[in-house]
Each structure stands twice: as structure tokens, then as C-alpha cells.
């Protein structure tokens, strides 16, 4: 919580996820795999322009058409199949039902959907459904590994447990925490030439930069 409070004082509330509806969060969570968010925004804009940002339209459109809409997000043929599978799951599991289901079985069910890994599943659970499932991304691992709070070789589950064991299981807290870490990673804890001197967490932990980071 010390880390969280530091970041919140520095950056303020982030109002995440950047989407107008829970369904848009779901679509964005799939499209953001292995690409920058600016590319996702362009793909979502295409879907909106085509009036295709609905489960019904995406599930009835040919995969080739979906691929054309989401082309800016990269890997568009692969992501078209993944998006279709996730949208099919979403329509079969409406939020009014999934928000009441036990979290761990629900998460595993999402992980069993084609193309859904832990980060995508947790993003959908947290940001689309408001469930307390902490999201771990490259920013999170980089920040915590550099400060010595997790092992450099730590996997997703180990890093996630670092947070869930130390924090109350509250979705608003997880939401804001992850968004704050993204902000820190974008502006200070960059892969190369990190701005350690101005980092809000500079006096916490033991800094362990990887070779070539300076």
C-alpha cells in the first residue's frame, strides 16, 4: 500500500479502462495483445464506424471481415479468431450472471477460451466485470523486478500472488493500482534509459537494472 499511495499522489486517479462499455473492454483486451494501445484505438474506431462493436455483429460477420476491421491491431487473422471466441463466450455468459459466479472457476473458464492468457483473462474480469483479479503486465514485472520485490524469472502467477497476498481483494483498488503501474512504466521505468532519479519509488527497494537499461 505504500507503493500504491506514492503512485496515487504522483499521478492521481487514472480512470481506467479507456472504454465506453464493458463489451468494448473485452474487445480491447483481446486486440491489445502484442501491440500498442494506439493501434487498438484505431481498430476499435474501425469497428465503431462499421457499427460492428456488438456481440451480434461480430459473431455473424465472416472472420475475413473482422480481420479487415481490426487490421491496425496487428496479427489480424489470428486476433479475428481469438476475438470471435471471446465474444462467443461473452454472449453465452452475460455480466449479470458472471458477476455472481465464484471468481476462480470463472477465471479458469476464461483461460480455456481460445487465445485467452492470464493477462487477457484478468483484464476482462477486472475491467469489464468488476471482479478482483489483479492484472500483471510487462510494466508490473519490470518495475517490481528492478526494485527487487519479485524475482526476475518470476512468472505471471507468482507476481500476481505478490499483490493478492498483500492487498485486500477489492476490484477498485486492483483497477487503480494496475493503471498507476502502467503510468509509472510509461514515463519513468522504461525498458531503456529509465528515469530513476525522478521515480516516485526511487527510495524504495534495491534498484537492479538489467544490462543495457541505462
Folded structure, characterized:
This protein is mostly helical and 214 residues long. It has a domain of 107 residues: Endonuclease III, domain 1, CATH 1.10.340. It is 57% helix and 0% strand. The chain contains 12 helices and no strands. The longest helix is centred in the middle third of the chain and has 17 residues. The protein is globular. The two termini are 28 Å apart. The mean pLDDT is 95.
Specify the CATH class of the domain at 22-128: Mainly Alpha
- Tally the helices: 12
Order of helices and strands: HHHHHHHHHHHH
What is the CATH superfamily of the domain at 22-128? Answer: Hypothetical protein, domain 2
- CATH fold descriptor of the domain at 22-128: Endonuclease III, domain 1
Could you name the ranges where pLDDT drops below 50 across 5 or more consecutive residues? none
Helix content: 55-70%
N/C terminus separation: 28 Å
How can the largest sheet be summarized? none
Cα-atom radius of gyration: 18 Å
User: Roughly what is the average pLDDT, rounded to an integer?
Assistant: 95
Envelope shape: globular
Number of strands: 0
Structural class: mainly alpha
The fraction of residues assigned to DSSP E strands is under 5%
- Second rung of CATH, namely the architecture of the domain at 22-128: Orthogonal Bundle
Amino acid at each position: 500500500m505504500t507503493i500504491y499511495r506514492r503512485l496515487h499522489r504522483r499521478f492521481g486517479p487514472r480512470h481506467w479502462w479507456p472504454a465506453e462499455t464493458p463489451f468494448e473492454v473485452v474487445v480491447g483486451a483481446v486486440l491489445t495483445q502484442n501491440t500498442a494501445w494506439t493501434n487498438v484505438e484505431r481498430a476499435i474506431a474501425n469497428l465503431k464506424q462499421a457499427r460492428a462493436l456488438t456481440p451480434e455483429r461480430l459473431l455473424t460477420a465472416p472472420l475475413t471481415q473482422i480481420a479487415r476491421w481490426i487490421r491496425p491491431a496487428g496479427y489480424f487473422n489470428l486476433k479475428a479468431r481469438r476475438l470471435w471466441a471471446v465474444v462467443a463466450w461473452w454472449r453465452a455468459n452475460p455480466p449479470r450472471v458472471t458477476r455472481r459466479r465464484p471468481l476462480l472457476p470463472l477465471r479458469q473458464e476464461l483461460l480455456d477460451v481460445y487465445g485467452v492468457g492470464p493477462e487477457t483473462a484478468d483484464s476482462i474480469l477486472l475491467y469489464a466485470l468488476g471482479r478482483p483479479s489483479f492484472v500483471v503486465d510487462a510494466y508490473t514485472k519490470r518495475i517490481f523486478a528492478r526494485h527487487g520485490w519479485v524475482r526476475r524469472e518470476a512468472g505471471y502467477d507468482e507476481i500476481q500472488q505478490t499483490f493478492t497476498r498483500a492487498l485486500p481483494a477489492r476490484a477498485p483498488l486492483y483497477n487503480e493500482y494496475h493503471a498507476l503501474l502502467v503510468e509509472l512504466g510509461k514515463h519513468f521505468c522504461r525498458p531503456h534509459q529509465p528515469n530513476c532519479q525522478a521515480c516516485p519509488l526511487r527510495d524504495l527497494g534495491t534498484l537492479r537494472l538489467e544490462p543495457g537499461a541505462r
